[in-house]
Amino acid sequence: MKIKKFEAGSFREALAWVKKELGQEAVILSSEEIGGLNPKVEVVAAIDPDLAQEKTIKSFSPESESEPEWGEKFPRPDKVSLSSSPPVTRAKAFPAYHEQVLLELQNLRESLEALRNKGYEVSLPESKKNIYQYLRNRFIREDLALNLTEKANCLTDLSGIIRNDLQAGWDWSDKKVVILIGSTGVGKTTTAAKLCGQSIKLKKKVGLISLDTFRIGAIEQIRIYSRILGVPLSIASSPEEVREGINKLKDRDIIIIDTTGRNPKDPSYGNELKAVYALGIPMETHLLISGSSSEHFMAESLSHYQSLPVNRIAFTKMDEAGGFGPVYNFSMQARKPVAYLTTGQKVPADIEFCSNAQLADLILNPKDVGRIAEINPIH
Ligand SMILES: Nc1nc2c(ncn2[C@@H]2O[C@H](COP(=O)(O)OP(=O)(O)OP(=O)(O)O)[C@@H](O)[C@H]2O)c(=O)[nH]1
Ligand SMILES: [Mg+2]
User: Fold this and answer.
1) Domain extents for the chain?
2) Three-class SS string for the chain?
3) Residue 193 CA, ligand 2 centroid: distance in Å
4) Ligand 2: centre distance to CA 346 (Å)
5) What percent of the chain has pLDDT over 90?
6) What is the pTM of this model?
């Protein structure tokens, strides 16, 4: 067993150093934060060379797919040496107390493996463990949770730290054209209708343009919303018609453009949208992300839309989401302000415009979503 002490500026640095020096199999035995003039962290880590070697040999076992490189290091099994001793089991060759020692070593290895699998949590001092666990219970990603844990001295610090990391809110004061993009069925048309309804509540003149002439029934769906809300609608089947639509609606304070629901992996979809941006008309782009989709899918959506000039992100279907942690994870990845959240199918009610502080509180206390509606003057 090789045991080594590491001193570094932060737990993250210390862990990276442990991994580099002792490898992935290393186990953290203890960790401590040391204050004073030069604050630092001290981490004691260990590696069991036998365990590491056993893992290497296992990877050359007959079950493994690739053939090992036979040579001096690994003699070919079919080359039997005359001088080699007959096979004996280790258990028979050792006296009883050795068997006992082997058994204890085995138990120790298993305990070390279990500790290693607990990862970051084990490396944290007691005072920080509950902060880290609190964040993980709210689905904050491991590395982000560790980062927040390093910054926070107690649970009550978290809200302030998170609100500084995020940007939330939407400015209704300017005259603008807003284009909603996002994967199929994410809620673009419903959100367009909700934004129209909320604009009307704020006494803004609003207009709608639909670029969705692709899906059967799409025009009918937005026509119904435009009729119910009393909002003028223009249907555009080409970028040129988008320009014409914007001209027709030029007396409006806000124009919302609803786009086609298509697979973002389809290159023709991206090209269609790029042709709209090529008109050179200033637009604010909102990328809609479903809060009920997996984080893997969210990240995939981001990479597909990265070539477009996304200004803000908005999370839809938060009423179906398992938690609000992914909102933090995704916002930190996308580094874009969060314009609003949608929280149900009711038009125009189920949309929330929150401040940094409100979003931070939602991430930490997801059950408080109803309170935003109470506080928000738009409702
Ligand atoms: N639970 C829940 N459902 C929502 C929300 N927003 C939209 N939906 C529902 O999601 C479904 C799809 O909504 P649409 O607005 O048609 O989605 P879209 O992105 O325009 O769909 P495509 O144009 O086909 O890509 C509808 O059944 C909506 O009622 C929300 O915030 N919560
Ligand atoms: Mg739609």
Assistant:
1) 1-61+96-119, 124-165, 169-375
2) CEEEEEEECCHHHHHHHHHHHHCCCCEEEEEEEECCCCCEEEEEEEECHHHHHHHHHHCCCCCCCCCCCCCCCCCCCCCCCCCCCCCCCHHHHCCHHHHHHHHHHHHHHHHHHHHHHCCHHHHCCHHHHHHHHHHHHCCCCHHHHHHHHHHCCCHHHHHHHHHHHCCECCCCCCCEEEEEEECCCCCHHHHHHHHHHHHHHCCCCEEEEECCCCCCCHHHHHHHHHHHHCCCEEECCCHHHHHHHHHHCCCCCEEEEECCCCCCCCHHHHHHHHHHHCCCCCCEEEEEEECCCCHHHHHHHHHHHCCCCCCEEEEECHHHCCCCHHHHHHHHHHCCCEEEEECCCCCCCCEECCCHHHHHHHHHCHHHHHHHHHHCCCC
3) 10
4) 15
5) 51
6) 0.71
